[in-house]
């Protein structure tokens, strides 16, 4: 069965600092991996996805993530945090190969950006 | 950019009452989903719907829950007799076979 673990329920960084949000997954099939962001009182917005091919994927708002099969990881990074990045971030894996399966979510990481 | 829209944004209901949560998926999408997020917990899958039938449901999705796509545009989640533990944020999502697009959610509060 597929599962996702996000290390750190809260991450705090200073504005301009590197953002690193950690995600490890378990999957019995080639994983389709996603990062979603949730701003207060809003829904989940897709940041980026890994399906097949290039292991370094770029998303919106300057975020990127690298799929590392050997480490079963899909960590999210951004070189320089902005105040507007403060939100909750969810890593998810599709429960089957492809995009049509249900998503299995991690518990989320709240990113705080300090001025 | 097309969006998934959900109504109402907040629903307050007495325990034991029926509630219907409404979603309008993106118009050319074919796959539809409901998820819920109890306060402080993970986002959990409830049900997926494709080709006018349920394709998968979780163990949460018991006989009190049902889904319908009555008119080719709306996608509804009905809870027949609400319990206190149904209080949560409910998210609708849709996809065309690619990544799922989520609505802003309906906050359901059971009194």
The computed structural class of chain B is mainly beta
How far is it from the N-terminal to the C-terminal residue of chain A, by CA? Answer: 41 Å
The low-confidence parts of chain A are: none
Largest sheet of chain B: 7 strands, mixed
Task: Give the class of chain A from helix and strand content and strand pairing.
Answer: mainly beta
**Discrete helix count of chain A:** 0
Low-confidence parts of chain B: none
Report the order of strands and helices of chain A: EEEEEEEEEEE
User: Helix proportion of residues of chain A, in percent?
Assistant: under 10%
Largest interface: A-B, 22 and 26 residues
What general outline of chain A do the C-alpha atoms trace?
globular
List keywords for this structure.
heterodimer; A: 115 residues; mainly beta; six-stranded mixed sheet; five-stranded antiparallel sheet; 11 strands; globular; B: 111 residues; seven-stranded mixed sheet; four-stranded antiparallel sheet; 51% strand
Could you walk me through the main structural features you see in this protein, from its secondary elements to its overall organization?
The complex is a heterodimer of chains A (115) and B (111). Chain A contains no helices and 11 strands. The radius of gyration of chain A is 13 Å and the shape is globular. In chain A, the strands form 2 sheets. In chain A, strands 2, 4, 5, 9, 10 and 11 form a 6-stranded mixed beta sheet that branches. Chain A is mainly β and 115 residues long. Chain A starts with a strand and ends with a strand. By secondary structure, chain B is mainly beta. Chain B has strands at 5-7, 10-13, 19-24, 31-37, 43-50, 53-57, 65-68, 75-79, 88-95, 101-102, 106-110. The termini of chain B are far apart.
Short description:
The complex is a heterodimer of chains A (115) and B (111). Chain A is an all-beta fold and 115 residues long.
């Amino acid at each position: 069965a597929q599962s996702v673990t996000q290390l750190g329920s809260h991450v705090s960084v200073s504005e301009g600092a590197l953002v690193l949000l950690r995600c490890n997954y378990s999957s019995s099939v080639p994983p389709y991996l996603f990062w979603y962001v949730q701003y207060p009182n809003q829904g989940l917005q897709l940041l980026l996805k890994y399906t097949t091919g290039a292991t370094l994927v770029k998303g919106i708002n300057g975020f990127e993530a690298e799929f590392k099969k050997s480490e079963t990881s899909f960590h999210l990074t951004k070189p320089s945090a902005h105040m507007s990045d403060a939100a909750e971030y969810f890593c998810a894996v599709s429960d089957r190969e492809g995009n049509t399966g249900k998503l299995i979510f991690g518990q989320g990481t709240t990113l705080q950006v300090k001025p | 950019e097309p969006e998934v829209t959900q109504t109402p944004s907040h629903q307050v209901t007495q325990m034991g009452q029926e509630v219907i949560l409404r979603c309008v998926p993106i118009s050319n999408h074919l796959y539809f989903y409901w998820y819920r997020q109890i306060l402080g917990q993970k986002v959990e899958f409830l049900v997926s719907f494709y080709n006018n039938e349920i394709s998968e449901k979780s163990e949460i999705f018991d006989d009190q829950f049902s889904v319908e796509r009555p008119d080719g545009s709306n996608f509804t989640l009905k809870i027949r007799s609400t319990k206190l533990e149904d209080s949560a944020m409910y998210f609708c999502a849709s996809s065309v076979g690619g990544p799922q697009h989520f609505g802003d959610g309906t906050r359901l509060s059971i009194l």
